[in-house]
Amino acid sequence: MSSEMIITVIGSALLIFGAAIIFSAAIGVLKLPDVFTRTSAIGTAAGLGVSLMIVGVVVIDFSVLNLIKGIIAIIAQLITSAIGSFVLARASYMTGSEPVSTTLPDELSHQANAT
User: Fold this and answer.
1) Do residues 55 and 74 make contact, with C-beta atoms less than 8 angstroms apart?
2) How far apart are CA 85 and CA 60, in angstroms?
3) Looking at the predicted structure, is the pLDDT value of residue 113 above 60?
């Protein structure tokens, strides 16, 4: 087995694993009970799934320029997915979306009532 084939298999496995994580988040969007758990599923999948896919592409088509682009893309993806999920969940709460009854404690309820 040549080293090029091993690299292709590893890169392809990372791509498939990243796609599987994103697919599981899509199922979560359909099955999870409220907007907050759905937002958490999407934010986690976006951060981890897309990062794994970027690493897979860099492994398959390695160059220093692709490595730099990949690192920048992963950092940007992790920052924006975390901030985006937080902002979306916070906006949902502030516009009246209630968490499921099993969410305890509701730490934002006193802040929402104070304003």
Assistant:
1) yes
2) 30
3) no
